[in-house]
Amino acid sequence: MTANSSHQLWIYDTTLRDGTQREGLSVSIEDKLRIARRLDKLGIPFIEGGWPGANPKDVQFFWHLQEEPLQQAEIVAFCYTRRPHKTAADDPMLQPILAAGTRWVTIVGKSWDLHVTEGLRTTLTENLAMIQDTIEYLRSQGRRVIYDAEHWFDGYKQNPDYALQTLQTAISAGAEWIALCDTNGGTLPHEMTQIVTDVVKSIPGETQLGIHTHNDSDTAVANALAAVMAGVKMVQGTINGYGERCGNANLCSLIPNLQLKLGYKCIEDSQLSELAQTSRFVSEVVNLAPDEHAAFVGRSAFAHKGGLHVSAVERNPLTYEHIQPEQVGNSRRIVISEQSGISNVLAKARTFGIELDKNNPATGQILQRLKALESEGYQFEAAEASFELLMREALGRRQSFFEIKGFQVHCDLVEGKEATNALATIKVAVKNKDILEAADGNGPVAALDAALRKALRNFYPHIAEFELTDYKVRILNGHTGTAAKTRVLVESRNSYQRWTTVGVSTNILEASYQAVVEGLEYGLLLHSQAQAALSTSSGN
């Protein structure tokens, strides 16, 4: 098939069903509804909502969507074929499917004779009857049916004649879509192309084919692309590739590859530009850390670190970027590290709103300071707020909001008992006044943070908006034992932005102190800049 923009592909998202089978992933009804509405906004035409009747959560999910339907997407209920030696009309498993009130239902049936005889413990003939009876019954109840041929590729390799019979049975019973499932994820792209081509030749020409791939061989996306090029029109997958074992085909990679590289129509271009935000939104809702190195949507997908790369991409982005980041809602990032060159420093300065000339002596000083600190264990590519403060200091533009005169942290430890709260005492100079404050906390870092905030809050009330959201510790040279150097990364945020700061020391409290103090300082800098911008805007 020749790929061009006239070819429409139908994206089928199963994040809310197959995706939730990922180990460690759990969602509430409200979580599912939020994700469904976000996918609807993204333009996904089919959203599989779950298995009504399998658990109360999914039943309520479909009830909610009956009361407040999605804007454009078809919400799909999922279920297996009826049980052996029953009739579909008498199988109670199918009644919640009808009660869900969806126009479309996805029915899963067995394609692999091994699963029929060993899993269902029935005959090959009865399995065909189960497929036919279930689909015909749902059709008689006014439902449109997508048939998922489970373990299709393994079944076809084992017994191609029988596997094809299952498809033909589903088609004759009234299924409008046939999705070929690589359930075990063991198929490779060259096999995918050949088998899908065989299926296209073996079934009626008006039948619409789909593909459902798993990532156990790390080829789920490649397999789905191969299947599309061989003739399928529906692609099933999940946001961020979530799913059981190694996951499902990642729609965040598939959609841009299909639309931008192969010329297929999946969603509107304006919706495609929401892809990175959707990826991060879903990861936040399911409480999993985003994959910063994910293709297309990861924070590092268009990050440039090497000096030669940066200078080249500054001249022409095509040198090291395969698409424009904005097409998928992402952005270019210039990463600062010991591998950086002058180009990195200049580019990074621009992102901070700082105009810096390569001939400025401060530019070379910044680069040398960067390399010296990174050799000591600092990591500025993960702590850009600290690097901006370093840069401003070198240029004489670092604002002095406060000065730490000293601090002490005390913890009481009693053998056999849990540690009591830590107590921190801190002395700070603010606007020519010395402030001494103490505060306790759930550990020494929390106590230090609380004491510092307490000392500053009368001078900077907005500091209450700053929140310490993440605290990471890494031992840099563990072979030195308790004398090892420690790197601490602290992530903070206000109501509209996140930033990360870094501290390094052989004393973990000293490293934490550095990162916490710079985190508060950077938050105050952001507030100061926002107030200045507001004042300028009001003046205009």
Automatic annotation (TrEMBL):
The UniProt record lists the keyword Acyltransferase: yes
Domain Pyruvate carboxyltransferase stretches: 9-273
Reaction(s) catalysed (UniProt annotation): pyruvate + acetyl-CoA + H2O = (3R)-citramalate + CoA + H(+)
InterPro entries, A to Z: 2-isopropylmalate_synth_dimer, AIPM/Hcit_synth_CS, Aldolase_TIM, Citramal_synthase, LeuA/HCS_post-cat, LeuA_allosteric_dom_sf, PYR_CT
Organism domain of life: Bacteria
Gene3D superfamilies noted in UniProt: 1.10.238.260, 3.30.160.270, Aldolase class I
Enzyme class: transferase
A GO molecular-function descriptor: acyltransferase activity
Recorded family membership: Belongs to the alpha-IPM synthase/homocitrate synthase family.
Protein name: Citramalate synthase
Organism of derivation: Brasilonema bromeliae SPC951
Designated gene of the protein: cimA
